[in-house]
Amino acid sequence: MRPKVLILRTAGTNCDKETEFAFRLAGADTYLYHINRVKEEKNITSYQILCLPGGFSYGDNLGAGKIFSLEILLWFKEEIEKFLSKGGLILGICNGFQILLKSGILPHLDFRQKATLTFNDSGRFEDRWVYLKVTSSSAVSLWFKDLPPLITLPVAHGEGKFYADSSTLKEIEDNNQVVLRYVDKSGKLAPYPYNPNGSLNGIAGISDSTGRVLGLMPHPERFLFPHHHPHWEKDTTYPFGRKIFENVVNYFSHG
Amino acid sequence: MVWRIDVFSKEDKNLKDLAYQIKEYLYLERLPSLELRKIYLIEGDFDRSTVEKIASLLLIDRITETYTIANCLFKDKPQDNEIIITYHPGVCDEVAISLNKALQDLNIKTKNTRTARFYKFPDLKREDILSLAPRLLYNPLIEHLVEYEQFKNLDTLDSFLGKEYEFNLKVINILDMNDEELEKVSKENFLSLNLDEMKVIKDYFKNLERNPTDCELETIAQTWSEHCAHKTFRGIIEYEERDRNYNLLKKQRIDNLLKSTVMKATYQINSCECVSVFEDNAGIVNFNQTFNLCFKIETHNHPSSLEPYGGSSTGIGGVIRDILGTGRCAKPVASIDVFCFAPWQISYQDLPKGVLHPKRIIKGVVKGVRDYGNKMGIPTIGGAVIFDERFLGNPLVYCGTLGLIPKEKSFKEVKPGDLIILCGAKTGRDGIHGATFSSTELAEDTVSLRSAVQIGNPIEEKKLMEALLRARDKDLFSAITDCGAGGLSSAVSELSKEWGAKVYLDRVPLKYRGLTYTEIWISESQERMVIFTQKEKLKELKEVFDREEVELTVIGEVTSDRKLTLFYQDKKVCQLDMDFLFRIPRFKKKAVWIKREEKDVKLKEKLDYAQDLKQLLASLNVSPKDWIVTEYDHEVQGASVVKPILNQEKFAVSDASVIRPDLESEECVAVGLGINPFYSDIDPYWMAALSIDEAIRNVICVGGKLKKISLLDNFSWGSPNDERILAGLVRASFACYDFAVKFSTPFISGKDSLFNEYLVGNKRISIPGTLLISAVSIISDWRRILKNYFKNSGNLIYIVGATYPELGASEYFRNLKIEGGCIPKVRDYAKEIFLRVSQAIEKDLVESCHDCSEGGLGVAISEMCIGGNKGASIFLKEVPHSIGMLSYEILFSESPTRFIVEVRRDKRESFQKVMQGVPLGLIGCTSSEERIIFYNINGKEIINISVDEAREAWLSTFKEFR
Q1: Could you give the ipTM of this predicted complex?
Q2: Which CATH class is domain A4-120+158-176+205-253?
Q3: SS3 of residue A229 by DSSP
Q4: Which of A58, A213, B688, B848 qualifies as a cystine partner to B732, CB 3.0-4.6 A?
Q5: Does any CB of chain A come closer than 8 Å to the CB of residue B105?
Q6: Considering CB atoms only, which of A21, A36, A127 is closest to B635?
């Protein structure tokens, strides 16, 4: 089955088109819709994948993803519960990850914010490539299947520092919900610029306990072709990001 | 009731940067402690529990922030060490606009919302706080302190929304005025019209037997402004060349400088790649089967000198709208930005009155481009930064955007009966007189011209862009243009000038009350566009816009009477003949060029040049600006092929940036820049030639080809009323013609910004004549694209092109403060070199390629070593050079059209064969031992440094910005 992907956009969403392209390239049917349309149609459950792409929803003016997450709480609570119980997947990239955390879809689906992505320690927006360690978790076998334990992807954000109180952090760690960590070339936790924002424990992406909801700050849709990498070689560079989208599509086509 | 919500950060916010600036400014011994809070003021008929809900749901991040609520602005008199800052009424408050949207989602009705910032400095005295605040914390042009005495009894925010406007037609009696009075009217109303122009206007109205309204005068002033009409470039110039004793050498009458140089070159070249040139808001060339490519660069110099953040953000916002307004709406795919600043090390005490500190200008300008570009989702893929003292009071900010447009939508169509629609943001008093303001020089008191400064709201423009592109794809409009300088006045009259138009100004949606009909007409409020469509398409158009939550208003229609007629509440407030309005008076100006003899300067030969090389690597104009590039989202839209700067593992600055804007096809766009105002000090003719050469070199390096290259020219110059400065402009234009024709690279768009000067006391300081040349090349396949750093050890290093003792105004001489010397010259073989290098790259004979520019061969080799983590041994003897040159000359001369090329040993013969007939030298090889070694003509080692040492020097300069 070719999965149907709903890519939800609103004012200020800006990675929607390349994310749609990535899903299409991987073989999915894509539906890039404005939140106002989805609000009218109320049919999230008719899709297999819900994707919240990157950008600055509503300018991030009251905090990254703040208003978008409020709208999810106001309009789509039940829809999302149903969607997940039917086996749907949710992917939140960058601003999408911020929205998943602030609306309480991650780390658990209880619609209460437990963790946040706050201002980078450097105090500014940064676009740079990072090394990521793919940790062993339930999400890995789905999203990161056949990828090596150390990959590179770009990040581009001003509010990406993963932060939670110590008990929440422990819970996330103990439940194996951390999927990606910022590391150095040797795969070890390291300070800035390897950890580009000061995230606790180098956390770059987490999933829910089932592994079917994934939020990450790095942009897999920006590494679909060799030429996306800063030091690409046309024959040898392997585009890690593309593989992630292919895995998701295969999950449905072969699953 | 007005509620005040203060939001506190639980964590220590990163305020170090500000603390450092305060320490520096007040000469403190240690960092001052400080506290910052966000304040929201919300007015509405609701109780505390509703405010609690708003605060907890919307205003805080529950994990990191907390809040307090008060039911008034001031409970008590604030302490002496506290201040609150808010925007002036009418200045765009982006956060408040978003807050309103969220409150609407929550079904909470508010009357007004505003934001403010609270600062507390526990260890500082009030007088120190008041002194530092306008310098470091806020800009008095757009913000003010909220004073307790003034606002202690505040019970409504309504006063921030202005007073009701009562219609009152203003007629200005110019028919009875003498010359002196005419000039006075122009000056007092900021019309920037000179006496001759005022007289032409007087004659026109004399014929009509009536006086003009203020609105008519303003419309004429906008249309005839230097900014909109380019009167200098399109006027008549009597150009003379004289020798040092003022003897006349040459005399020439130039009738329209633009048409006789830049445009003439394009028409003469007559390239089949050009689709639309010098006609639309941007130049359009062929890209691939589906799309054409458009490119436009604008300057926003004056606004950026007064309010750097607002100036640069509205600069980028404006040029993005230019692209949206090209053809029937192009999609912006990338931006570039070039800045010229003064060095930032100057102390606050030495700053002239009315001039902002360069550090503040640099940070503000970069932030402005960052926030606007990033939030628009348009990658900022490259740029350049130039430093010179003369940019202190007049920095230069060039903003450029590239767009893709479906081939069949490349041209507009306007017909009588078309509806004129204003869409996007509401109209306020923003930027009134922006067009006429940028046509005069900056004086200390320009700071009083408040309304010319504005700040942008990128999310508004992002929404507008999405709505327009969707409407375009459904063919819902037939013409479009942006509201830029001159506002509605310029947009409507420009689009409808062949036919005529009538507009009802009272239909324009306003941000606040009190705007007069004239203010509505000439307001330069950001994020607005004008589109023309037919009645039957209106409904569907509205549906598209509603979904995106973008406002759209029919404000008038195209007529066939060739008149511009404006109404306010059914009363006629303006009626002008289009023919008169666009018959812009032409004036004669004089330009005198004093020819100087070039004098070669010879220095004493040294035994070791390692230190000199390191100093050059660290110089302001060579050291990389990665700290700017990382702040830009240069990868959004997923099109990146060559990034402007690499800073992971390998550190390199690219010669040109490359994107693949249509992922469905393999074609790429490479953008290269050429800018070097220092050469203008010797001769603007060669400055322009060298800039063209540099821009082309940069795109050739990555794989561009001459026949696929188009150029943009952007002049920033001093006052054209100074005959010597004007002569420089003429000479630069001559070179544009000569070299565009020589290389067969057409100009497709351009812009000039004149009057770039400022007064310090009574002294007039003019910027160096600065021409930015941008070259854009289509490359057929991304797999062909090259990098500019060494790839492997054991490869051969060639130099293509010859080296001459040309160090006049070079980075090396300027570092040593040496004036004089010969200016580099572009030679006749340049075109052949470009063609051959492209050929070699096409035949896959080249591993990497980099051009020699600032700092010459020495810097170019070092950069290739740093980027590739490879060493190199170079023999100056093998560099093709003229007889008798000294080591430092071969090392650091800036002779143009030179490439350093890395070639594999097995491709040596094929490569040399391709290069036969152009100056070529096999000058050394790359090595795994990471050392940079140069040998002089006699084979003696004159530089031997490690690559790490070179990298450290190269990265040393901008440490405090990283």
Answers
A1: 0.97
A2: alpha beta
A3: coil
A4: B688
A5: yes
A6: A127
